């Protein structure tokens, strides 16, 4: 995979900043009591979602997780409708009924964030199967964490996807902790990619906080899937800078100095910014202008969300797909 152009790198920079700004704003709003529900912030992991989704077409599919805002923005989700969903307003992607962990938008191929660990993995394989039946060039990508690779559905789906040569890319975002449990305490393997050969598919480990390395590895996996050569397991070594959820300080199970070191050395936005300055001739002022433009857009998204109407009680059962309710 060739190096991305300057324009592509700027696009990736913008997307990562969009995600970071959204998450920081959501965290502040939640802590001030303005948002209902629950939040799992993606701060620190932006390079994985962006490095993968930059290769996807509008009609490709993704499945997400409880920590899904970054995936959704990277795939093309709009921050105003996402923020409206977090506020539980009718203008949100799911009319305020899904909240943070269940945003979906079929128009952009977002098959849904998911509060169940590993549950998006078979959904992506199912979407890839439909693409294969319809003989399109669509592919599906499933994002999940290291803890999900211990679930039976992970192994079952990789096996079936390999047997059927489905156009799907499995992306493990290994942020080194399953909630508060270090990876080394819930798995014997250190490199999750070594699980791929059991299903005779490629397994690749990459620095998940370097968007250019993710871009290169994901490009090969996406090309392989789109060409009909089957799935790939992409293991992205990343790190969340915040706790597991908004109320978790993240300090009881990991060293504060470790977190600070990760933020200093592996912040994906700063790393790409430095490449744009050192290798592409951009200035800090130009990057700051991008940041400011995106911040203004986010303010507009916040106003849109705050001024949107609440759902009506009589609409509670609309859009719920289930069998008839028996008296």
> What is the strand tally?
7
Nearest-angstrom radius of gyration? 19 Å
Mean pLDDT, to the nearest integer, reads: 94
- What structural class do helix, strand and pairing data support? alpha/beta
Percent in strands: 5-15%
- Helix run count: 11
Strand order of the largest sheet: 1-2-3-7-6
- What's the order of the H and E elements? HHEHHHEHEEEHEHEHHH
C-alpha termini separation: 60 Å
Helix fraction by DSSP (H/I, runs of at least 4): 40-55%
- Structural shape: globular
Q: Please, what is the oligomeric state? A: single chain
Question: Major sheet: size, sense and barrel closure?
Answer: 5 strands, parallel
Indicate the low-confidence ranges by residue numbers: none
What does this structure look like?
The chain has 327 residues and is an alpha/beta fold. The protein has eleven helices and seven strands. The strands form two sheets. Strands 1-2-3-7-6 form a five-stranded parallel beta sheet, sandwiched between helices. A hairpin with a 2-residue loop joins strand 4 (177-178) and strand 5. Helix 1 (6-31) crosses helix 2. It is globular and about 50 Å long.
Question: What are the main properties of this structure?
Answer:
two-stranded antiparallel ribbon, 7 strands, 44% helix
Question: What's the topology here?
Answer:
Elements: H1 6-31, H2 46-53, E1 61-63, H3 69-75, H4 79-86, H5 120-133, E2 140-145, H6 152-164, E3 168-174, E4 177-178, E5 181-182, H7 183-186, E6 203-207, H8 211-226, E7 232-237, H9 256-266, H10 268-280, H11 284-306
Helix pairs in contact: 1-2, 1-3, 1-10, 1-11, 2-3, 2-8, 4-11, 5-6
